[in-house]
């Protein structure tokens, strides 16, 4: 797994030519109240305005473009807590192919209904993402002409999602810190690959819930054991870490911060109030992490990646 | 007032050259669940992703560009329930001038704090918008070098905000219905002016709360008397109609629908759920109106203008 090709900046620039015409070039904005809150020069990258409400679509589009070029396939199979599945369902749809997405039994209904409306065959299986993933892999044994898309160990996904970081550095200079949420790690890996070359001074900081710290523990210790997986931020909810993105993060990520679910919830509210936009829990983990590093980032130029908007009415009700 | 120049399509195309580089070209998207709900080919224009969370900024930018060119002024005075005030504060700021905005005592605090952070001198005066406006006019008598900006009787504002309709028709053909909210009427007037020329088949439908029906009554009867003003949709809250936009709407608007505050609240929730984005009450009035005309618009291509996102946590809490 660790000998999979690590995307280069050239790969990402190439991917951007494929991805960019099909997605929304999301704005990067400053909100004075957020600057005050962090006592820094804070900008947010509004991937919560992205089509399908998440940055993940960038990865799906690029992967579908590449594998349709390379392989003789009739469809896609994957597992997802939601946003990655929407991305694959969308990419399959624009490629004129079917998709099967395995999701945990308690998957976010907003994300599930979006996948269904994109034509995906959504299969509820397993109590956790890890069980869903295992089931998707077993399904793919029987469906040989469906391309199994591993949600983490997949260079094309990282290459595709890395395009958001290209947009950041193309539009704003001298970024000191870039905060990206970490579920399996593809978004933060992409941000690290791009920043290392385009803006070497930028420190990329990953953020994860301490209730689902698998990726953090693997990044820190190099050991890939099962971890507790109880976060309410379903976009960050995995009990396993995956070698390929963690390998990239170990080489390139500057720091990794754990935050509590309570801190994430407070950050969803702060972002709702200051940006008047919906940010799902995973995306708000970036603000929670920045608050933890408030001393370090004082007066610095900081980017918070608001990775998605897919929050349910039920989650919102609970928060308010 | 009624002999003010009615903007032409050429005026709007000219304004777009000024406005477009400074704003966000907001996406126009389709959500399958909204199509199902209305049984039509529904697209939303996401002005709730616009900078400052409202289409109004387009008007402020164009107005400031024109008056700074024409007049010897040192600043701007206006009255607003919120979004127009943000727009003028922003336009003043990028012109390097001060602004004074009079708002009702109970103005939406999210909008007020945004105005303050843009450098505006915000003056709370009056229980209603109409009282705030009267006070702003009296203030402007004393501040001769401040340009008084009437929030409704002002051709430059209508010309500027009309640019969102240009973006709609540039990006999507054969629009049968375009629903726009009506407070004082500048947005709907702009949409009517543009659609009449660029897409004559498009029926522009205004929508207002039946709890603040001043513009509707003036449009229907030609009489400009005071009306009840109790809507919770502060973006639509005025007890007076204004001759200049109403004159344009009488000539060009195809239909005007009143909806209840309850229908508006339900529509905020429906849009939250289907688009996973924040839409303030005024913007949701378009969906409420489309639901009222469901029979008429069946299977037609429909645009809903989601005019803004500036809803407070308190309003959201109440809704959920």
General description of the model:
Two copies of one chain form a homodimer. With 320 residues, the first copy, chain A, is an alpha/beta fold. The first copy, chain A, has two domains: 9-55 and 156-319, Rossmann fold (3-Layer(aba) Sandwich), CATH 3.40.50; 57-152, 3-Layer(aba) Sandwich (Rossmann fold), CATH 3.40.50. The first copy, chain A, is built from 15 helices and ten strands. In chain A, strands 1-2-10-7-8-9 form a six-stranded mixed beta sheet, with helices on both faces. In chain A, helix 4 (83-94) links the parallel strand 3 (75-79) and strand 4 (99-103). In chain A, helix 4 (83-94) packs parallel to helix 5 (109-117) and helix 8 packs parallel to helix 9 (186-198). The model of chain A has no long low-confidence stretch (mean pLDDT 95). Chains A and B meet through helix 5, helix 12 and helix 15 of A and helix 5, helix 12 and helix 15 of B.
Reported CATH architecture of the largest domain in chain A: 3-Layer(aba) Sandwich
- Major sheet of chain A: size, sense and barrel closure? 6 strands, mixed
SS field, number of helical segments of chain A: 15
Shape of chain A: globular
Query: What is the CATH topology of the largest domain in chain A?
Result: Rossmann fold
Q: Assembly state here? A: homodimer
The termini of chain A sit apart by 43 Å
Poorly predicted tracts of residues of chain A: none
Instruction: Trace the largest sheet of chain A across and list its strands.
Output: 1-2-10-7-8-9
Please report which band the strand proportion of chain A falls in: under 5%, 5-15%, 15-25%, 25-35%, 35-45% or over 45%.
5-15%
């Amino acid at each position: 797994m660790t000998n999979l090709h690590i995307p280069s900046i050239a790969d990402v620039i190439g991917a951007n030519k494929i991805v960019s015409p099909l997605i929304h070039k999301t704005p990067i904005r400053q909100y004075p109240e957020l600057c005050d809150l962090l006592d820094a020069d804070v900008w947010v990258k509004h991937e919560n305005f992205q089509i399908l409400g998440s940055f993940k679509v960038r990865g799906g589009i690029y992967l579908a473009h590449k594998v349709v070029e390379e392989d003789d396939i009739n469809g896609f199979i994957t597992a997802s807590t939601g946003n990655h599945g929407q991305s694959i369902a969308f990419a399959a749809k624009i490629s004129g192919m079917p998709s099967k997405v395995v999701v945990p039994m308690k998957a976010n209904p907003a994300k599930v209904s979006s996948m269904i409306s994109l034509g995906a065959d959504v299969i509820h299986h397993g109590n956790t993402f890890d069980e869903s993933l295992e089931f998707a892999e077993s399904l793919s044994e029987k469906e040989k002409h469906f391309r199994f898309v591993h949600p983490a160990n997949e260079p094309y996904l990282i290459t595709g999602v890395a395009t958001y970081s290209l947009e950041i550095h193309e539009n704003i200079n001298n970024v000191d810190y870039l905060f990206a949420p970490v579920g399996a790690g593809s978004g933060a890996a992409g941000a690290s690959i791009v920043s290392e070359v385009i803006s070497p001074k930028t420190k990329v900081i990953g953020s994860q819930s301490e209730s689902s710290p698998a990726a953090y523990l693997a990044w820190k210790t190099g050991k890939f054991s099962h971890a507790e997986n109880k976060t309410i931020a379903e976009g960050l909810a995995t009990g396993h870490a995956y070698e390929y993105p963690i390998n990239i993060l170990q080489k390139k990520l500057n720091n990794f911060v754990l935050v509590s679910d309570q801190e994430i919830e407070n950050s969803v509210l702060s972002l709702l109030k200051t940006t008047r936009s919906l940010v799902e829990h995973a995306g708000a983990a970036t603000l929670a992490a920045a608050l933890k590093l408030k001393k370090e980032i004082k007066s610095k130029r900081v980017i918070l990646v608001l990775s998605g908007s897919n929050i349910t009415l039920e989650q919102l009700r609970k928060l308010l």
